[in-house]
Write a structure and sequence with these properties.
Number of strands: 13
CATH architecture of the largest domain: 2-Layer Sandwich
Strand content: 15-25%
Structural class: alpha/beta
Oligomer: single chain
Length: about 375
């Protein structure tokens, strides 16, 4: 049966391997025979009698296969093929040539242009059906491989920053870089141990997933890089692995928005955080050969962690180095010199708010759905 398909229907009407075959020939009698032969095999088909019409249909319908006559009025088959292969929307569609010519050079030309097969006229329909069946099987395999590649790519980018993943794909085996300037943040859930004792484990994991998913969204919004989660702690970096001259300000804006969200949510569920930030030199790279991860090392990382652990709940604790980078655009409360384990007496500040300008607004797809839409509804208490 031949399909009565509207050639103007959008391409999403068809699954990748269920889309019709496009027949291109200036001979209407041959087109009718081809459609009948393919219809008996259960294939739907569309037809075009000119190169221009073929190109338009290919872009609109994205057929699963194109059977294309070499000798066409106006644009010939080779020119049509070349045009389709140069277009991102049609370049992957397999093309089979029909030709009454037995000249070897013509076949060679078609194969060089990217054709997958060459069928001679007059058409032997049993041969045609066999060759079409083979190409459709190969097309289904190709679609499955492309889907698998997309899933693999998505998983890789969930583990590694894009620029690091690209370097691995390009053959680099050891990736270790030194960054003279970056800003590191640690965020820790206050009172997690007693909370864990009070909550059902499944609900506790759901809570952490909800909170960390929201932080992930804010990290993406502000152009930062999530490094890892450690239990109830979250580590993020700005200026690594892709340099950002405003790394400290990007991190400060993120921390302020995160605190705002947490204060808003605390009215419903008492989730409280400590946030610590420090800026300086870091070393970044990939460690291990199995389940490898992108990680950061150095005194800057250790100091940022100490800033978090010595912070009061629902405050943003920043070092003097980060304070200097932020300048007068933000309001701070000095803490004076406090003892930081491993550092001794250290000048630190609480970041209060931004006083000059506002973080630029972002497109709707970057906006986060909000903690309250994600969090479990069961109440619990935390220690401060």
């Amino acid at each position: 049966m031949t399909s009565q398909i509207n050639p103007l229907a959008p391409s999403h009407d068809f699954a990748p391997t269920d889309r019709p075959i496009l027949l291109v020939d200036d001979d209407p009698a041959l087109l009718m025979l081809l459609r009948k032969s393919l219809g008996l095999q259960g294939h739907s088909a569309l037809s075009a009698q000119s190169g221009e019409a073929a190109i338009a249909l290919a872009k609109k319908v994205n057929p699963t296969l194109i059977i294309l006559d070499v000798s066409m009025p106006g644009l010939n088959g080779f020119e049509i093929c070349e045009h389709l292969k140069q277009n991102d929307d049609t370049c992957k569609i397999p093309i089979m040539f029909l030709s009454g010519s037995q000249i070897f050079e013509d076949k060679l030309m078609g194969l060089k242009l990217g054709a997958v097969d060459f069928i001679s006229k007059p058409v032997e329909f049993q041969e045609l059906n066999a060759r079409v069946g083979t190409q459709l099987k190969l097309r289904r395999i190709q679609v499955r491989l492309e889907a698998l590649h997309e899933r693999t790519e998505s998983l890789l980018l969930n583990v590694l920053p894009r620029s690091v993943a690209d370097r691995l794909r390009n053959g680099e085996c050891e990736i270790v870089d030194r960054f003279p300037e970056a800003t590191i943040l640690f965020c820790d859930l206050v009172g997690f141990t007693p909370m864990a004792a009070q909550m059902d484990p499944v609900r506790l994991v759901a809570l952490l997933n909800s909170v960390f998913s929201e932080i992930d969204c804010l990290v993406e919004k502000h152009g930062l890089e999530k490094i890892k989660t450690i239990g109830d702690a979250y580590m993020a970096a700005s200026g690594v692995p892709d340099w950002n001259p405003d790394h400290a300000r990007a991190m400060a804006n993120f921390a302020l928005e995160l605190r705002y969200e947490m204060v808003r949510v605390e009215r419903e569920i008492p989730i409280r955080f400590r946030i610590g930030i420090h800026s300086g030199e870091v070393v970044a790279g990939i460690i291990g050969t199995k389940r490898f991860s992108f990680d950061l090392w150095g005194d800057t990382v250790n100091t940022a962690s100490r800033m978090e652990s010595s912070c009061a709940p629902m405050h943003i604790h920043v070092s003097s180095e980060t304070r200097a980078l932020l300048g007068d655009n933000y309001e701070f409360t000095p803490r004076g010199k406090i003892f930081i384990r491993g550092k001794g007496m250290f000048e630190t500040y609480y970041l209060n708010r931004k006083v000059i300008g506002q973080p630029r607004s972002l497109p709707p797809h970057h906006q986060c759905p909000g903690f309250q839409q994600r969090l479990p509804d069961k109440q619990f208490s935390t220690d401060s």
